[in-house]
Amino acid sequence: MKNALYILVTSILIACGGSSEEENPVFDNFTVNLTAQKNTLTIDEVVTVAVTANKNISNLQVSTDNFATSQGAGTSSGVGTATTLYFNFDTVGTKTISIKATNEVGTIVEKSVQLNVQRGTAIKITGLKVLSFHNINQTWDPEFSSTDSNRLADVFFSLSKRNVHLSNGNLGSKLWLKSDVKQNQGDLTWNLSASNLYIDPTLSLWFSLADDDGTFSQDLLMGPPFERELKLSNYVTSKPSILRFTIPEINLDLELTVEWP
Fold it and tell me: Rounded to an integer, what is the distance from CA 39 to the centroid of its chain?
């Protein structure tokens, strides 16, 4: 009887010990800090955000839209205990930068920081008009007769602007705007006042123009190059409301309508 009672008590103690370990897991004191270089900046200004942690970060996801979309930062081997992120913005307002940092044992810490983006000296682009391009009013779709308006180019343009790489701070470019298509050449005038297009006037835009043929596009700038630089800085002193750009060798002539601050 004593032996049976001893076995029963021992079994209860062992069971209680196992339950205590499951209910009190080892605490992982993984901490992450997010520090912005500045909290107020202007359109197209590059700002850095420092990420520091007390343990190695094996995976770092970054978002500026509450993780509706995100991108990874660092390398495939992780980012260590510290890294720097680079940002620039082309719209005004409050911007929230969020991160999800994962350490080597899978613990995830989320952090965010808010920035206030102001217009500064940025101009607003409100319209674009193409006055001429190579072979304007001529046949771009040879399957149609010389009297058929369908032979004309179905014209659209795109604008690219400077952008900073998230992880290394290198400056490149990104597609900023792709216009709608003007069928059979149309009036070649686009109202962009509702597109919220702001840019630092000391920078350049990269302009491309093409004929939309449905499954593919045909370059209208006689490329390469397939993009042409529009130097906004040429107008910083005079500040006209219409900026005109011409490239005679390809018969390109266009106007940007802008608002200065």
Answer: 19
